[in-house]
Amino acid sequence: MPRGDHRLPAALLFLLFFFSSGAFHAHADSSSPSVKFTPADNYLLDCGGARSTTLDDGRTFRSDPQSSSFLSTSEDILVTATNASSASNVSALVISARVFSEESTYSFFIANPGRHWVRLHFYPFPHPTYNLTGAVFTVTTDTFVLLRDFSVPTAAAGPVLKEYLLPIDGDRASLIFTPKKNSVAFVNAIELVSAPDTLVPDTATSVSPQGDFAGLSAYALEVSYRLNMGGDAVTPKGDTLGRAWQPDDGFLTLPGATRNVSVPTRDVKFPDGGGVTPLIAPSVVYSTAEAMADANVTDPNFNITWQLNVEPAFSYLVRMHFCDIISHQLNQLYFNVYLNGLIGVSGLDLSTLTSGLAVAYYKDFVLNASAVANSTIRVQLGPATGSNDGTPNAILNGLEVMKMSNVADSLDGLFSIDGSYRGEPDSGSVARKVVSAIGLSMGALAMGLLLLMVYRWRRRPDDWEKRNSFSSWLLPIHASHSTFCSSSTKGGSNRRQRFGSHKSKSGYSSFFASGALGLGRYFTFAELQEATGNFDDKAVIGVGGFGKVYLGELEDGTKLAVKRGNPSSEQGINEFQTEIQMLSKLRHRHLVSLIGYCDENSEMILVYEYMSNGPLRDHLYGNSAGTAHPLLSWKQRLEVCIGAARGLHYLHTGAAQGIIHRDVKTTNILLDEQLVAKVADFGLSKAAPSMEQTHVSTAVKGSFGYLDPEYFRRQQLTEKSDVYSFGVVLFEVLCARPAINPALPREQVNLAEWAMQWHRKNQLEKILDPHLAGTISPTSLTKYVEAAEKCLADCGVDRPSMGDVLWNLEYALQLQEAAMGQADDPTLQNSSKHIALEYSLSSIDEAGGEAGGGAVAVNEDSGAIVTPHTVQGR
Ligand SMILES: *[C@@H]1O[C@H](CO)[C@@H](O)[C@H](O)[C@H]1NC(C)=O
Ligand SMILES: *[C@@H]1O[C@H](CO)[C@@H](O)[C@H](O)[C@H]1NC(C)=O
Ligand SMILES: *[C@@H]1O[C@H](CO)[C@@H](O)[C@H](O)[C@H]1NC(C)=O
Ligand SMILES: *[C@@H]1O[C@H](CO)[C@@H](O)[C@H](O)[C@H]1NC(C)=O
Ligand SMILES: *[C@@H]1O[C@H](CO)[C@@H](O)[C@H](O)[C@H]1NC(C)=O
Ligand SMILES: *[C@@H]1O[C@H](CO)[C@@H](O)[C@H](O)[C@H]1NC(C)=O
Ligand SMILES: *[C@@H]1O[C@H](CO)[C@@H](O)[C@H](O)[C@H]1NC(C)=O
Ligand SMILES: *[C@@H]1O[C@H](CO)[C@@H](O)[C@H](O)[C@H]1NC(C)=O
Predict the structure, then answer these.
(1) Where does the record locate the signal sequence feature (predicted)?
(2) Higher pLDDT, 203 or 294
(3) How far is the centre of ligand 2, averaged over its atoms, from the C-alpha of 64 (Å)?
(4) Which residues touch 299 (CB under 8 Å, ≥6 apart)?
(5) How far apart are CA 334 and CA 382, in angstroms?
(6) Per residue in 444-494, pLDDT tens?
(7) Which ligand has the shortest distance to the CA of 296?
(8) Nearest C-alpha neighbor of 284 from the set 315, 240, 221
(9) Could you tell me if the CB of 86 is within 6 A of ligand 1?
């Protein structure tokens, strides 16, 4: 409800145009003269001044003349500082003021709606008639309360600048000054200037709760702090948009722990194609930073902490400016960003975000009022711990903190512009609010803890490595590939209930004896003793948290894998049961099959077909068993991946109710004599969600490095979690390195992250298995990587089904075969782009029972594939 804006005499509108066409242009940043912003609206008023004032930055503030056309007030009171000493060292702008004894309104014509800066200068110089330090008043716009019962109690501290960024729609904006009863209002100078549209985007990252924040455009903002880290103050003259930046020294909790770093401003680069421009912040801000002091002086693993006093009960927009001016090469700097103890970014990686050094970057965070405790905002930066490259560091170049308007559309108190109180009306609901605030902060705390746990897990390889928890024990286990479980006992007992209430060992016997499970042949204990040389340690081919796996041989020469449970392991018992449950339902060429079992004398023994070529992993790298397997060719690798994919596809879709494997990794993909891949170890498997469910809620289990991040976050299991793990397997096959290798520098530890980083840079070939160099057809590689990359999508819904992955891998194999065929057959080398391939259908789908062969035409132009057969699962 605009007040006073109708009083504007139309005849004097020209004056407004006169003002708005004022001569202020953004000062071109010295380092990037091309950036120039000319504000559409540009009102600069030296209130109460006799003549216009030109500042050292070139801006000219016009005096608002008596009976000013855009001011409606009951009387003109213009005052000027008379005491020379109080005016001696302040800007000429503030030595005069306009005083209001009643509500008075400035009305401005707005040429271009959108965000505008409003800056109000207050300097209560001593005056014989008016006591400005005693003035108490309220300032509002048509929509927002900017100041409520505001006063500047002393002039000694110098002029006070209140700076706002307000969304203004419509063609008029008002500033209404209302003195409190028996008091006056005053103002020394007013700026109302268009801000660039790109300055404040609509979205930011919310830290409490964690997520995206949208709708920023609707909020009025008040600048609380604008800091230039590690550098000097930047005056409006040095800024592209007339902003002032303070040095940050005073806000560091431990100044000795940091050091100033700087580069010449010309070294600061702004990314091509917009986003960050010198309008966001000038180069001089990006060219200096606060970094961690020499690790020699202090423990390198600490946080740089800034503490800023703010008004509680408001949410804040926190903008951090970054520019990596300390690294000498890419991918060296990783650090975490916290706001009030809540994680803002984990492992911020400027190299990847900006693809360069000394490139300006900024990030916006919204800190909800519920997280602003003790009237402080604490900004903390710490190196991503656990980094092995020996250069833990963190930097911040600039920081802006802006208060966001509240429910009352106010930046000062809970009264809205019409004076109505918008807080909680009665004590009951205040109590509720407190309760919910506590709930909220507990939620935030829980979120913080969870993230901290993730962080710990991710950064502390030793911890999880030592976590010798229950794991697959079907076939060789690699000590460095332990699995973890977030709530082992609980999850275990839940699962136990799922599979019946057998509590005693004899209970298990009756479980086995039910016979309805189709467990195959029954072995006597004596038979298995003989087959394994009385469970000779020499026969052990694998060890897991729950028992050992022995190589056995029957009288007829059949080789067996004999998995003997350790009866004292409770978790093992659960896995044991799960495995039986699952395997009893499953028969597939690409799943390891159960031959039989033995439950004599409380034993828990399962007997499987023996996979003579062991786990896939041993064919890629670091063979732990010591038996040298020849490395697989690219074509063989593709065939193995296709086999495994087919096994998983069958698991997901083939059984009556789909099954989620939950522990897909290269040690659980076994190869038989003919290198046929089979998926093993169903100890963690779960029935897939039924039609009406979308997911299974469950404690997070699986293997480190393969774990679906979405599953980890939400603890909701779907088939797509297997797809994610399989994506990691695909990269492992391509790069021939473990999914997690704690021995590597921090950014390389996690294969999924590392590979995606290089993929985004289009340089994946740099981390390919060197053994494959020159043998992969580029089109095959592209198809393969496309499939792998899709598997690693952040959200399950964005990942393909196993059927789709399978189809892509088959296509990649065809492309490889086509390329090999071309190379082998010189007559084909320059032939048409249509290549007919003989395609053995036995490799399309055994489970589907199809037989025979078919021709597949590959059109290299379009990349389309035409096949006369429907590949199952598409
Ligand atoms: C002028 O300012 C000085 C210092 O602030 C103060 O001591 C003196 O009393 C002031 N004079 C008047 C007339 O206000
Ligand atoms: C101005 O008002 C303030 C607050 O009412 C009071 O403390 C102060 O003494 C007054 N100053 C003068 C010069 O009257
Ligand atoms: C004026 O300058 C003096 C000395 O430089 C300083 O102590 C004082 O705080 C300044 N006053 C203002 C209002 O800036
Ligand atoms: C960092 O720079 C600021 C501003 O130039 C200066 O005040 C401060 O003393 C410097 N700190 C260190 C540790 O050099
Ligand atoms: C620590 O500082 C001392 C003296 O400046 C230097 O001799 C030493 O090499 C430094 N140590 C490390 C680990 O940087
Ligand atoms: C850094 O601060 C965050 C948030 O307050 C905290 O969780 C973390 O432990 C701190 N890191 C170090 C090394 O002190
Ligand atoms: C802060 O959180 C409360 C409660 O969830 C919510 O109502 C409010 O909109 C949030 N404010 C901002 C600015 O995000
Ligand atoms: C808030 O302040 C109180 C008292 O000063 C202090 O005990 C508490 O630790 C502070 N809390 C935080 C989160 O800073």
Answers:
(1) 1-28
(2) 203
(3) 27
(4) none
(5) 9
(6) 444 444 444 434 333 333 333 332 222 222 222 222 233 332 333 333 333
(7) 5
(8) 240
(9) yes
Residue 29 catalytic? Answer: no
Q: Is a pLDDT exceeding 90 seen at residue 362? A: yes
Domain ranges of the chain: 10-194, 213-404, 472-609, 618-868
For domain 213-404, give the CATH number: 2.60.120.430
90 lines ligand 3 (CB under 6 A): yes
The residues near 626 (Cβ < 8 Å, ≥ 6 apart) are none
- Which is catalytic among the residues 248, 663, 769, 845? 663
Q: Which residues pair with 65 in a beta bridge?
A: none
Q: Provide the phi-psi class of 132: left if phi over 0, else alpha when psi is between -120 and 50, else beta.
A: alpha
Residue minimizing CA distance to atom 1 of ligand 7: 368
Give per-residue pLDDT as tens, 365-415.
999 999 997 899 999 998 876 555 557 789 999 999 999 999 999 999 999
Class of domain 618-868: mainly alpha
Query: 85: Cβ below 6 Å to ligand 1?
Result: yes
Residue 32: strand pairing partners: 29
451 lines ligand 6 (CB under 6 A): no
Residue 252, burial from CB neighbour count under 10 angstroms (0-12, 13-18, 19+): middle
Task: Looking at mean pLDDT, say which of 53-57, 247-251, 626-630, 769-773 comes out highest.
Answer: 247-251
Is the full-model pTM beyond 0.85?
Answer: no
Q: How many CB atoms lie within 10 A of CB 813?
A: 23
Element (H, E) at 316: strand 316-322
As given in the structure block, the two tokens for residue 268 are: 């600061």
Kindly state the tokens that stand for 627: 């038996």
Which CATH number does the domain 472-609 belong to among 3.20.20.190, 3.30.200.20, 3.40.50.450, 3.30.2160.10?
A: 3.30.200.20
Cα 377 to ligand 8 centroid, rounded to whole Å: 12
Protein fold of 10-194: Jelly Rolls (2.60.120)
